[in-house]
Amino acid sequence: MITRSQKIRLGLFVLVSMVLLFILLAAVLGSTVFADRDVYEIDYDISVSGLEVGAPVKYNGVRVGRVDRIWINPEKVSQTRVAISLQKGTPIKENTKAILNVQGITGLRFIELVGGTSSSRTMPPDSIIKAGTSVVDKLTGRAETLSLKAELLVNQMVELTGDENRALVADVLERSGSLMNTLDRTITKNSDLLTSTLENINRASAKLVLAIDELRAVSKETSLAIASIRRKVEGVLDEKRVIGVLDDTRKMIGEARKRLGEDELGRFTKALNKVAKRTDALVEKLDLLVARGRQDLRATLRYLAETAENARDFSRLIRDDPSLLLRSQEKRGRELP
Questions:
Q1: In degrees to the nearest 10, what's the CA dihedral of 264, 265, 267, 272?
Q2: Which of 84, 107, 137, 215 is the most exposed place for a label (fewest CB within 10 A)?
Q3: Rounded mean pLDDT of the chain?
Q4: Full-model pTM
Q5: For the residues of 246-268, what is the DSSP string, one character each?
Q6: In this structure, are strands 56-59 and 109-115 parallel, antiparallel, or unpaired?
Q7: For residue 98, how many C-alpha atoms fall within 13 Å in the half-sphere facing its CB?
Q8: pLDDT score at 335
Q9: What is the crossing angle of helices 239-259 and 262-320, to 10°?
Q10: What is the pLDDT of residue 331?
Q11: Rounded to an integer, what distance in angstroms lies between the CA atom of residue 129 and that of residue 122?
Q12: Half-sphere exposure (CA, 13 Å, Cβ side) for 315?
């Protein structure tokens, strides 16, 4: 039987335990609930399914707060606004973004604050943090895009494999087969003609090689002849030799004046004057002849150069199209103006 003193001691023990539990709860809840916190808001344009009030808020993996409230933005009903409370002094920068992440395999979500640089300006409390896109959301969006493209591709394949297209493809294949058969029969029928044509081409190529060799030889002989003519003309038309002959004539006249007397010198001088006049006339005619010869020589050299250029053009045409040796060009009559 329990005595009165035991009941008193049991009552005191229960009372002390409750007081200690109350103090412990007050200490814990006071440090979390009643502490000063910074409140921020986030606007999401996507579904926040799985995010509940009280869900943790982490900054680079460190828990810094919780979700306090979730409601629809009355100014824009397609947005969901989330209010979060963070520990006092949490550095939220202007380039910080809030993304939704999934906790394990439960499907519950939490908010992850990412980004932010020290050089960026710190946002004051009651500001709106920009919403970011998580890797899962990106993969989901890409999966939706891929599914749409796959569906479009399947629809196009169905259209391509329709009855009309199948009939068109069968018709094309049938025509291709008939065309190949026709081509085969044509080649078989004209095999002798093709063989003779190839032999003619080979003979024409051999003739072309010989013609090119002959043209090269003619070009070489023409160049040698032009060089020889130039050397001979330069030797004949050397002005220095003409000037030397005139100087020798003047020297002979001076020596003759010294050796002859006055009378004979007069007569001899007159004769020499006549000779000098005739010599001057001869020199003038010789100059005219030299000038005309130079013009004729230049014209001859120009014609020879044009002939060599035409020969090179002809050899190039024959080399590009050997069939010119096998067919003749149509002769056209000259049209009088």
A1: 140
A2: 107
A3: 76
A4: 0.37
A5: HHHHHHHHHHHHHHS-HHHHHHH
A6: parallel
A7: 30
A8: 47
A9: 170
A10: 43
A11: 11
A12: 17
